[in-house]
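Below is how a single chain appears once it has passed through the pipeline. First comes the sequence as given, then the structure the pipeline wrote out for it. We keep one example in the README because the format questions we get most often are answered faster by looking than by reading.
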Amino acid sequence: MRAMVVAPDTDGGDLAAHRVPTPHAGPGEIVISITAAGVNRADLLQLRGLYPSPPGWPQWPGLECAGTVSEVGEGVSGVQIGDRVCALVGGGAYADAIAVPVDLTLPVPDGLDLIAAGGLMEAACTVWSNLNTAAARPGETLLVHGGAGGIGSLAIQIGKAMGLRVIATAGAPDRAQWCESLGADVAVNYRNDDFVAVTQSMGGADVILDVVGAAYLARNVEALSIGGRLVVIGLLQGATAPLDLGTLMAKRARVIGTTLRSRPHHERAAIVAAVGRELWPWIPAKVAPHIHAEVPLEEASRAHGMLASGEVAGKIVLTP
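Resulting structure:
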C-alpha cells in the first residue's frame, strides 16, 4: 500500500509516496481502509522532527482518519467488515490503510459522510476532553482562539451545544463572520480589535481554549474571570513567557496545559468512549466538521503548505 513518508534529502519538508507493507489486525484491532485523513498542525511539526509518532505507531504523519473496516482482529466484537468508522490514531493515517485498536474508533455518525468524518476525531477529542478538564458548565463564557481553524470551528459548535456563551477570535473580518455563522455569540477580528477588552466587557472568560501559547499568555490571564481556567492546547507563537502570578492568584484562576497524542492508551480510549457517548448524538445536527478542501493523498505537501499559510477555514482532508 501507499504511505506518505518524509522524502529523502528534503530536510523534512516534503512527503513522498512509498510502498509499505499492508497492515494486518492484531488482537483487539481493526484495519481501516482509509477514505479521508485529516491534516493537523501536529503533522507539520512531525515533519520538522518535533512531534514524532509514539512507540507502536507508524512513523509517517496522520492523527485521524475515516473509512471502512477491511479486517477484524481476534477478540473484537461489535464491528464488522464494511462498517464505516473514524479513528483517533497516534500516527500513520497518511496512507491507504491503518491498523487501529478498536477502542480508539467510533462509528461514523448517521448523516455524516466519510470525507467529513476524516476531519472529525482529533478536534472532537481535543475540544471535548479539554472543556471537561476545565469543568466548563452551561451558562459560562468560553473564549476560543483561532475560531476559524479546525479545532476552533468545532469548539465554537461544541461550546454552544453545551450551553456556553462563546467568544471567538479570528484574523480577518470574513473569518470573524464565519465564526458567528457557526454560532459564536461574538467574534473578534484580533488584527483590529482587542479581544481582552471585548471579553472583559462581557464579564471575562470562564474558560479559554488557546492554540497560540506564549504570545497570548499575559493577555489571556487578563481576560479571565474570577475563577477562570486557561487551557493551553497549542504553541503556535511560542512556549515560554512570563506569568503574572499576582493576577492569577487575585483571580483564583488556573492555567492548564494538555496534550492528546502523548497520553497513554487507556486515557485516549476513555476520551474516545466519552466523545462517543456525549458528543456523537449532536452530530451532525448541532456539531459538524467543515471541510475547507479535499487534497489527493500524494499531494500531502501541498496540503501542509495550505495549512501553514493560515488561510484555511475548517479542516483539510487527504483522500485517495
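The chain has ten helices and 15 strands.

See the next section for the split statistics.
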